[in-house]
Amino acid sequence: MVRTWSTEQGRDETCEKCGSVYEVHITRFPGRDADKFNCDVCGHLMREWNDTESPSFRLKTRGTPPGASPPKARSARPRP
Ligand SMILES: [Zn+2]
After folding, report:
1. pLDDT value at residue 2
2. Cα of 68 to ligand 1 centre, how many Å?
3. Spatial distance between the Cα atoms of 8 and 19, rounded to a whole number of angstroms
Protein backbone atom coordinates (compact mmCIF):
# COMPACT_ATOMS: atom_id res chain seq x y z
CA MET A 1 0.00 0.00 0.00
CA VAL A 2 1.31 3.37 -1.00
CA ARG A 3 1.38 6.07 1.58
CA THR A 4 -0.03 9.31 0.36
CA TRP A 5 0.00 12.73 1.83
CA SER A 6 -2.84 13.21 4.14
CA THR A 7 -4.53 16.36 5.17
CA GLU A 8 -6.58 16.51 8.24
CA GLN A 9 -8.79 19.11 9.70
CA GLY A 10 -7.04 20.97 12.42
CA ARG A 11 -8.58 23.40 14.76
CA ASP A 12 -9.09 27.10 14.56
CA GLU A 13 -6.35 29.33 15.82
CA THR A 14 -6.72 32.90 16.87
CA CYS A 15 -4.01 35.50 16.50
CA GLU A 16 -3.31 36.80 19.97
CA LYS A 17 -2.40 40.22 18.64
CA CYS A 18 -5.29 41.13 16.42
CA GLY A 19 -7.91 38.45 17.02
CA SER A 20 -7.99 37.12 13.46
CA VAL A 21 -9.24 33.56 13.27
CA TYR A 22 -7.51 31.03 11.04
CA GLU A 23 -8.64 27.62 10.00
CA VAL A 24 -5.60 25.37 10.31
CA HIS A 25 -5.11 22.24 8.27
CA ILE A 26 -2.27 19.86 9.00
CA THR A 27 -0.59 18.28 6.00
CA ARG A 28 1.83 15.41 6.41
CA PHE A 29 4.77 15.41 4.05
CA PRO A 30 7.10 12.53 3.28
CA GLY A 31 9.97 14.80 4.23
CA ARG A 32 10.65 17.43 6.78
CA ASP A 33 9.32 20.89 6.30
CA ALA A 34 10.58 23.96 8.08
CA ASP A 35 8.61 27.11 7.77
CA LYS A 36 6.69 29.67 9.72
CA PHE A 37 3.50 31.57 9.45
CA ASN A 38 2.93 35.21 10.14
CA CYS A 39 -0.52 36.63 10.62
CA ASP A 40 -1.79 38.10 7.35
CA VAL A 41 -3.41 40.96 9.14
CA CYS A 42 -0.86 42.19 11.67
CA GLY A 43 2.30 40.20 10.89
CA HIS A 44 2.49 38.48 14.27
CA LEU A 45 4.44 35.22 14.17
CA MET A 46 1.80 32.63 14.84
CA ARG A 47 3.74 29.44 14.40
CA GLU A 48 7.13 28.05 13.47
CA TRP A 49 7.63 24.41 12.68
CA ASN A 50 10.29 21.95 11.59
CA ASP A 51 8.45 18.73 11.20
CA THR A 52 6.85 16.30 8.79
CA GLU A 53 3.55 17.85 9.71
CA SER A 54 3.05 21.20 8.13
CA PRO A 55 0.15 23.44 9.04
CA SER A 56 -1.55 25.62 6.48
CA PHE A 57 -3.53 28.61 7.60
CA ARG A 58 -6.61 30.04 6.01
CA LEU A 59 -8.03 33.31 7.19
CA LYS A 60 -11.60 32.94 8.35
CA THR A 61 -12.25 36.09 10.27
CA ARG A 62 -10.18 39.20 9.92
CA GLY A 63 -9.28 40.82 13.19
CA THR A 64 -8.28 44.35 14.02
CA PRO A 65 -4.55 44.97 14.21
CA PRO A 66 -3.43 46.94 17.24
CA GLY A 67 -3.23 50.62 16.50
CA ALA A 68 -5.66 50.45 13.60
CA SER A 69 -8.86 52.36 13.89
CA PRO A 70 -11.97 50.23 14.08
CA PRO A 71 -14.02 49.99 10.91
CA LYS A 72 -16.34 52.92 10.42
CA ALA A 73 -19.62 53.20 8.65
CA ARG A 74 -19.24 54.38 5.07
CA SER A 75 -21.97 56.93 5.35
CA ALA A 76 -20.30 58.70 8.25
CA ARG A 77 -20.37 62.44 7.79
CA PRO A 78 -18.80 65.05 9.97
CA ARG A 79 -21.45 66.47 12.24
CA PRO A 80 -21.77 70.16 12.80
ZN1 LIG B 1 -2.73 39.08 13.76
Report:
1. 53
2. 12
3. 24
